[in-house]
Design brief:
- The chain is α/β, with parallel strands linked by helices and 226 residues long.
- It has one domain: Rossmann fold, CATH 3.40.50.880.
- The protein is 34% helix and 22% strand.
- The strands form 2 sheets. Strands 2-1-3-4-11-10-9-6-7 form a 9-stranded mixed sheet, with helices on both faces. A two-stranded antiparallel sheet has the order 5-8.
- The protein is globular.
Length: 226
């Protein structure tokens, strides 16, 4: 079973869940703010989504401590892991990296570029060395001691990393849908009037859906090779 951890009720799995189900992958979404975390014995792969909170907000959101514990165990057992935005930051924090609030923030459709190790990494197989992503983050992570940098951008040098054989963290959002963009824009006065602009930019980037789908296919391929 693929388990998806949804840390925030307003940050759903979007097309990540849709793509997995289209591939015939059994998926269960777990919401740790109101239910127990899944057992690794029942987990083929773990995907951890984003959220409006910071990875260091354990006092405000005590479940984050348990999520980071599960992430450490996932990495130690080499269970395939994909952390998206906050999920990538939680991977970094769980394994000794520093997560900083209000650093290297990005919003909208922006390109990232693979590093030399990134061009050889299984998660990015078949992707262009430079590709368009949807970004929505204020916080960012430093790499854990054993982390390998896989992608960067001019505004945010740590866009993706891997630790161990099959634990990945990415700063960008492969799960975006129009519904999610419009919902997130409503969160804040600064973005409330930008929904049409951000949706139009996302829709105009024809490669976005192909990139998001290929990334998920590659991740599924890793789980099948375990």
């Amino acid at each position: 079973m693929f388990h998806i951890i949804q840390n925030d009720p307003e940050v759903p799995p979007g097309n990540v869940a849709t793509n997995l189900r289209d591939m015939g992958i059994p998926v269960r979404v777990c919401r740790p703010y109101k239910e127990p975390l899944p057992s690794l014995e029942e987990t083929t792969a773990l995907i951890v989504l984003g959220g409006a909170m910071c990875a260091n907000d354990d006092q405000l959101h005590p479940f984050l401590t348990q999520v980071k514990g599960l992430i450490r165990e996932t990495a130690a057992r080499s269970v395939p892991y994909l952390g998206i935005c906050l999920g990538g930051q939680l991977l970094a924090a769980a394994l000794g990296g520093k997560v900083m609030a209000n650093r290297w923030g990005e919003l909208g459709m922006l390109e990232v570029e693979l590093t030399t190790p990134g061009r050889e990494d299984r998660l990015f197989a078949g992707l262009s060395s430079r590709f368009a992503t949807f970004q929505w983050h204020h916080d960012s992570f430093d790499l854990p001691a054993e982390g390998i940098l896989l992608a960067s951008s001019p505004a945010c040098p740590h866009q993706a990393f891997r630790i161990g054989p099959c634990a990945w963290g990415v700063q960008f959002h492969p799960e975006m849908t129009e519904e999610i963009i419009r919902a997130w824009c409503a969160w804040d006065r600064a973005t409330r009037g930008r929904a049409d602009e951000l949706v139009a930019a996302w829709q105009a980037e024809e490669s976005y859906g192909l990139t998001a789908g290929r990334l998920l296919e590659n991740f599924v391929g890793v789980t099948r090779a375990q």
